[in-house]
């Protein structure tokens, strides 16, 4: 499974930080964040809301553009080892410079520098999607969107929203999304993870995303599933994340295969891989075991993912060659 060329569309940069990397950063800064790890050194949390806290504590030791340059390299090494040839990662000006545009530019330059290095040495291509954090509220989302609009361009391709889906309504973020869209950014939004079909409908109506982060709980309303299929809305499905966070008891119980059968465009990603003890190769292995998905199905998934990528046509054509084995 490691050998199959993969395209990943849903990866939180800080959420992909290997625990050993974060411990190293904490030691350099003489910070004690040992409470977020278990006895084996893995991230430890009891539910999604605690996960968000642990995530923010881990992120708190990343404090400079140089820290993010090193983080990006560490993350891309893991992705490349799993066969990922193209990846889009979520970046948050909330964590990178506190939504100050000048500071954000410095962080972004460092992340791009690491991405360029990884492209040369590992053959993996990265693009960025700025994401606002829902539970930080709509005012901070506006500032985040302004950072995104200032730096929108060839490398920064999208805008999205993550965080606690149960706080605030999609309509509270319309200004931020319109601002990002007017700057030329493509739109994705987390929905249908912690809220059901109505949360997805509200997100589609307010923010008009081309892609949904997760979106899997559409399966609770088959009319909505048909609508997603008709609209061609792409789901960034992260099965291992959903199982680890208790949304579904197992891969077999996960709706990805049913959504695919019903004509919804599904893709496969890891979300926050070390938090969920996963990698892209492990996602593929688990999907093969649960649904007997074969190479033909994984080729279809990789092509659908590249189709739904937010990068320019030349980059897509170059990556498409890598998918033709
Ligand atoms: N931020 C990082 N991972 C997330 C997830 N699975 N849902 C919402 N926000 C997130
Ligand atoms: Zn996510």
How many strand units?
A: 8
The CA-CA distance between the termini, in Å, is 14 Å
In CATH terms, the superfamily is Metal-dependent hydrolases
Tell me the count of domains. 1
Strands in their spatial order, largest beta sheet? 1-2-3-4-5-6-7-8
The portion of residues assigned to helices is 40-55%
> At the first level of CATH, what is the class?
Alpha Beta
Nearest-integer average pLDDT: 97
| CATH architecture label name | Alpha-Beta Barrel
Helix segment count?
Answer: 13
CATH topology: TIM Barrel
Report on the biggest sheet. Answer: 8 strands, parallel
- Cofactors and ligands present? adenine, zinc ion
What is Rg? 18 Å
* Shape type: globular
Proportion in β-strands = 15-25%
SS content category: alpha/beta
Q: Can you tell me the residue ranges where pLDDT is under 50 for at least 5 consecutive residues?
A: none
């Amino acid at each position: 499974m490691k050998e199959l060329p993969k395209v990943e569309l849903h990866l939180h940069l800080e959420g992909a930080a290997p625990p050993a990397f974060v411990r190293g950063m904490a030691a350099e800064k003489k910070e004690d964040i040992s409470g977020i790890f278990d006895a084996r050194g893995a991230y430890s949390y009891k539910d999604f809301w605690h996960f968000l806290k642990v995530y923010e504590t881990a992120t708190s030791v990343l404090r400079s553009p140089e820290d993010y340059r090193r983080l990006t390299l560490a993350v891309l090494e893991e992705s490349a080892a799993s066969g990922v040839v193209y990846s889009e990662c979520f970046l948050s000006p909330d964590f990178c410079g506190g939504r100050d545009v000048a500071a954000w530019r410095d962080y972004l330059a460092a992340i791009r520098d690491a991405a360029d290095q990884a492209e040369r040495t590992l053959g993996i291509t990265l693009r960025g999607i700025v994401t606002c954090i829902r539970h930080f509220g709509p005012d901070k989302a506006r500032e985040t969107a302004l950072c995104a609009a200032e730096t929108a361009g060839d490398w920064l391709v999208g805008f999205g929203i993550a965080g606690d889906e149960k706080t605030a309504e999609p309509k509270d973020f319309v200004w931020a999304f319109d601002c990002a869209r007017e700057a030329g950014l493509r739109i994705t939004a987390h929905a249908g993870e912690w809220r059901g079909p109505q949360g997805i409908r509200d997100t589609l109506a307010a923010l008009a995303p081309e892609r949904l982060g997760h979106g899997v709980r559409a399966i609770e309303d088959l009319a909505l599933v048909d609508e997603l299929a008709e609209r061609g809305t792409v789901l960034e499905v992260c099965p291992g994340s959903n199982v680890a966070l208790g949304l579904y008891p197992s891969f077999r119980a996960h709706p990805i295969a049913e959504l695919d059968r019903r004509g919804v465009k599904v893709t496969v990603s890891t979300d926050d891989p070390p938090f969920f003890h996963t990698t892209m190769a492990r996602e593929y292995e688990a999907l093969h075991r649960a649904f007997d998905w074969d190479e033909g199905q994984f080729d279809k998934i990789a092509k659908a993912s590249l189709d739904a990528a937010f990068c320019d046509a030349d980059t897509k054509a170059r990556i498409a060659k890598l998918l033709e084995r």
